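Table S7 (text form). Paired inputs.
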Amino acid sequence: MVARQTEIKPSVADDEFSFSPCPIRNVLDRIGDQWSLLVLEALEPQTLRFNALRRAIGDVSQHMLARTLKRLEQDGFVSRTLYPVIPPRVDYALTPLGRSLMVPLRDLMTWADRNHDAVCAARRAYRHTAS
């Protein structure tokens, strides 16, 4: 059995996106969506198959998980390995680039966890003053 890693060919839209005048926005727009951080976090400790990844995240739809994985693969954060067996087996794992991204993301996630209550309190206070 020989595993095969898939290669995603960039589309015209992806090529245009890669030449964004703001490299910070270019990267943060891709990883700052609703699901990417959760996918990256779930893959940090181990390689997972699609359904195991979906269970680890919880309330993500099959469509959104597939779409998120494809984008993370296109950006080089996640690898997809297809094994030629019946039924097909596909594993997802962080690439070295994805692992390097987890260093600052882990700090951000820790900060968010520690400050969640303060952020929620600020939102409530703003809502009362804005009304």
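Next pair, protein 2 of 2.
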Amino acid sequence: MPRDYDVDREGRGRNMILPCPDPLVYPALTRTDLVRYAGASGDFNPLHHDHEAATRAGLSDVMAQGMLSAGLLASALTKWFGAGSVASYSVRFRSPVWPSDVLSAHCRRLEALLAEDGTRMARAELELVRSSREIVLLGTACVWTDAVTANP
């Protein structure tokens, strides 16, 4: 388990907050994106590609697969910190994502940690946000990093 990066003389951890990387904005989602993701993931639930099935289920339109949203946020981590940098990642879904949504990935807090072997890490608090500023996905991650600042 990583411990706080900055420790006092008694070995007690103190938080070391780092600057967050700039948000990453994705192009507007299309129905084609949803169908492509269905093919890649095997998630062919009609709620993700069939407008009539979605409206019969009480939705206004088809909605994106939840893991597509989670994947977008995870791709921001690898852009910010590099491929292979993610040690752990978890998400909580807050709101459906719809075709034409413009989403942006945000790192809201970045805290330096030190792994037991002395490797530098960071704990990130993340959000995937619709252009209307509505949070659609919350995430947390621990990333391996030799540098204590994120890539721009």
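Residues 25 and 43 are 25 Å apart (CA to CA).
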